[in-house]
Amino acid sequence: MTAPVPKLEKSEEDWREELTPEQFQVLRKSGTERPFTGPYWDTFEHGRYDCLGCGQPLFLSDTKFDAGCGWPSFFKAVTPDAITEIEDRTHGMLRTEIRCSRCDGHLGHVFPDGPPPTGLRYCLNGTAMSFTPLD
Question: Is residue 25 part of a domain?
Fold first, then answer.
């Protein structure tokens, strides 16, 4: 069993100072970027996707796939404890929201319509992530 991820807590004022208005809206207010407009939806370089709010590693490029939805999509998180899943009943739907387990930043949602081997589609806001190329 792995140790719990240490939490990063900041005030709303600190987050507003560190993030652009769009990043703040997505990460701290559970916003969603429009499809095909955010970063990384069409990036397929070898690398790692990290939480923009705290730098925690979230997903690797070898788990990324083109879901055709206009958002970066992955079938597996880098580790199970990198994300937290929360029931989301907003907008008249029942979905599973995913958040960064370290800073509680909103990342997107997970759906059961992804490819093997997991059958999951982690549908992320590119605005919520940074990308680090890896050799």
Answer: no
> pTM value?
0.92
Consult the annotation and say whether 69 binds a ligand: no
The answer to the question of residue 59 being in a domain is: yes
**111 belongs to a structural domain:** yes
| 54 annotated as belonging to a binding site for a ligand | yes
The reply to whether 123 belongs to the active site is yes
Query: Binding site annotation covers 100?
Result: yes
Strands (E), 4-128: 47-51, 57-60, 64-65, 73-74, 83-88, 95-100, 106-111, 121-124
pLDDT tens, position by position, 59-71? 999 999 999 999 9
For 102-133, what is each residue's pLDDT tens digit? 999 999 999 999 999 999 999 999 999 999 99
* Full residue range of the structural domain in which residue 40 is found: 35-133
